[in-house]
Amino acid sequence: MKKSKISIIQVSRILIQILFFIWLPSLYINTFHGIKDIYSAVVFQNISLTQLIPQLVEVFAIIPLTIIAGRFFCGWMCAYGAFGDFVYKISHKIFKIDFRLNEDTDRVLKYFKYVVLVFLIFVVCTFKINAFSTFSPWDAFGVIVSVGKVPDFSYAAANLTVGFILFILITIASVFVERFFCRYLCPLGAVFVIISKLRIVKVKKERAKCGKCRICTNNCAMGIPLYKYDVVKSGECINCMQCVTSCPRSNVTLTVSEKDVRPLIAGAAAASVMTGLYYVGKLGVSAAGLNTAQVQTQETQSAKGSYKDGTYEGSGTGFRGGTTKVSVVVKNGKITDITTVSNEDTSEFYDRAFTTVSQEIITNQSSNVDGVSGATFSSRGIMEAVQSALSKAV
């Protein structure tokens, strides 16, 4: 009977991971870059609230629920985390690799993700350092592991060289250490560890009822020494439920305000709520984007500019080398409208970039604007296409 329960919980979790891997693979990167953009907006006050809506959607679809329920996102929904799980489990089953880090070493290494977080947010963002734009292993992951597309190793190696190398190294490390990236390098994980300290959903394990097996600790994906605790308050916990399903005494449970709950229902509910918030927010983004474009159009039409009136088309190269074609409308010498004719980009990245980049171009009357964090190549493709169109209007 216990074996059946283990199968149901873990198989269901894997299925949910696969679904998010296919349909929302960029949710992780969008959330982290959303935090960066919000930080930049607060510090430099150069971005309007309307322009921040796409970033706010991802952030507020995930972080509030993390405060309440803990890191369900990491354990059930993160595409990069799921990739690490698949690499580790396949190598563990096929090659019988059983490597374990010393507990003290593991604890110290976990602090490194805070160094990464501070560097990316408070150094790169504050000083606007662009030299590290190709260093992201999750950008390389997005290029290589895109469902429905052939892995483009050559594009990743040529355009994201350092990020590609880091991605390969992290993948190799994931063969030996479960959730290597999540434990030691993930900056978003560092944010989640901090905010999930307040969560009410926790793992409970009465040590008085434990034997000496330490099976729960040995099965913890994040290397938490569970044998030391009656209630797991560590922000490192990703609610993967492997401790719950592996305990031979059924002594490990998931609790909400000290009351036991069913792990499968809790995980599925958390994933459903986050997804619902995400898509509801996306509808708001679309409406806001249209309204903002209309306001900006009215503002720019009143001033005389330097371009010839007319409608012009141009093309540029976006994410994964795809061609982006746009149509640019010029009235009274000003850019008043930008629409997409066609694009061969990845929709998650392109949609995120287009709203912000097109609005910035209209506001600044220039194709030379800042790209959108997490959609750098899509942004460049849009800017290049607009510049190509405007070259015909001079």
TrEMBL record:
Xref: InterPro entries: 4Fe4S_Fe-S-bd, 4Fe4S_Fe_S_CS, Electron_Trans/Redox, FMN-bd
4Fe-4S ferredoxin-type domain residues: 228-257
PROSITE patterns: 4FE4S_FER_1, 4FE4S_FER_2
Annotated transmembrane regions: 12-29, 59-90, 111-133, 153-177, 184-201
Keyword set, alphabetical order: 4Fe-4S, Electron transport, Iron, Iron-sulfur, Membrane, Metal-binding, Transmembrane, Transmembrane helix, Transport
Keyword Metal-binding assigned: yes
Pfam families recorded: Fer4_5, FMN_bind
Source superkingdom: Bacteria
Name this protein carries in UniProt: 4Fe-4S binding protein
Annotated organism of origin: Clostridium neuense
Lineage: Bacteria, Bacillati, Bacillota, Clostridia, Eubacteriales
